[in-house]
Amino acid sequence: MLETRSAVYKMLQPSASEERRIVKWPPPYSMTMTPYQERDFDVTVRRACLSVSSAPRISKLIVLGDVAVGKTSLVNVFCHKKYNNNYKPTIGVDFEVERFDILNVPFNLQIWDTAGQERFKAIAASYYRGANIIMLVFDLTSLLSLSHCKQWLEEAARSNTGNYFVFLVGTKRDLMVTIIVFGVYFFLIFNKNSHKTL
Ligand SMILES: Nc1nc2c(ncn2[C@@H]2O[C@H](COP(=O)(O)OP(=O)(O)OP(=O)(O)O)[C@@H](O)[C@H]2O)c(=O)[nH]1
Ligand SMILES: [Mg+2]
């Protein structure tokens, strides 16, 4: 575990793990659902890969969103393939590094998993600066958590004047099935009862 968490360990490896080696442009799940129509790496990506650099290539990703929407779970599944049903709130921020080889060039992705709890906001906000990617996470079963994403983005944008990518990620899709099943169940019961009263 220590080895897989160590940034230096990952950087010193001759290559990234197989699933982190990206040599072909990954297509979107659905071409009709995405605003991005590119079919190959952007010329800036190819140029960045070709340029000679002695310094490690690092991108910073910050993960933001309401309390308990599933930010840490998302990061843990992505980095360690581990999922825990027990809720353990993040205190301030957690940090991970993922090594990628893009077109055979090593890149490191710093992942800053922030706390959603109000009392840790000031600590978490001090890590917003210099983000290349802002990931806004919401719970698919909570409209409120989606509407709060705008505020999270505004706060992160205040600390970041440069260019950054924004990702909006919905979690807990499995719970939507439960909600739909309950919804249909109550709808049927309600309709059955209302017929009786007619
Ligand atoms: N059913 C279901 N539960 C999930 C999913 N993702 C996360 N959870 C649960 O939601 C709870 C909160 O998850 P966390 O990942 O700790 O949430 P968080 O956003 O990091 O919370 P804070 O660190 O307090 O901001 C935990 O009990 C998780 O097991 C999911 O996809 N489906
Ligand atoms: Mg967390």
TrEMBL record:
Signal peptide: none
Family matches, as Gene3D superfamilies: P-loop containing nucleotide triphosphate hydrolases
Transmembrane segments: 164-190
Pfam families referenced in this protein's UniProt entry, alphabetically: Ras
InterPro entries: P-loop_NTPase, Rab, Small_GTP-bd, Small_GTPase
SMART domains the UniProt entry points to: RAB, RAS, RHO
Keyword set includes Oxidoreductase: no
MF annotations from Gene Ontology: GTP binding; GTPase activity
Protein name: Ras-related protein Rab-34
Entry keywords, A to Z: GTP-binding, Membrane, Nucleotide-binding, Transmembrane, Transmembrane helix
Coiled-coil residues: none
